[in-house]
Amino acid sequence: MRTDPAGPSDRGAAPEDVRLPSTDPELPFSHCLELNAVAHDRAGGPELSMTWSWPAGLFGGEEVRALAGLWSEALAALTAYALASPTPDAHGLRPSDLSLVDLLQDEIDELEAEWDM
Q1: In whole angstroms, what is the distance from residue 97 CA to residue 101 CA?
Q2: Which of 55-69, 73-87, 100-114 has the lowest mean pLDDT?
Q3: In whole angstroms, what is the distance from residue 76 CA to residue 86 CA?
Q4: pLDDT value for 3
Q5: Which residues pair with 9 in a beta bridge?
Q6: Is the pTM here over 0.70, yes or no?
Q7: Distance CA 80, CA 100 (A)
Q8: Is 1 in contact with 15 (CB distance < 8 Å)?
Q9: What pLDDT score does 91 carry?
Q10: For 2-56, how does the pLDDT look when each residue is reduced to its tens digit (9 = 90+)?
Q11: How many CB atoms within 10 Å of residue 54?
Q12: How far apart are CA 70 and CA 72, in angstroms?
């Protein structure tokens, strides 16, 4: 768990460095494509380490590299979107944020506009 190092906290990252072990080529795969990821707190900011694995007979390396590139682009776009917000709720509420009421997105937008949220 990562917390703000400048603020008080009773939780923090484990002191050891987490490493993903390589897969044993003799073990069967649970899924046709597996992705394991670990976020590390580094001096320059968080860093995501990913390990992609797949059965050699099912996918080629180029296919998985292409998918990994697209996945990384999508993750970068989501990160940029989140960082562009001046506050966490700057983009407004979504129906999934309000599970106790049955509102459509346009109804939420109207309420936010009416109440200047």
Answers
A1: 10
A2: 73-87
A3: 18
A4: 42
A5: none
A6: no
A7: 30
A8: no
A9: 66
A10: 344 454 455 555 566 666 566 677 777 788 999 989 888 889 888 888 989 888 8
A11: 19
A12: 5
Q: Output the 3-class SS for the chain.
A: CCCCCCCCCCCCCCCCCCCCCCCCCCCCCCCCCEEEEEEEEECCEEEEEEEEECCCCCCCHHHHHHHHHHHHHHHHHHHHHHHCCCCCCCCCCCHHHCCCCCCCHHHHHHHHHHCCC
- Return the pLDDT at 63: 94
- Residue 27, CB-side half-sphere exposure with 13 Å CA sphere: 8
Other CB atoms within 10 Å distance of the CB of residue 86: 6
- Name the token pair of 18: 């987490």
* Distance linking the first and last C-alpha atoms of the chain: 31
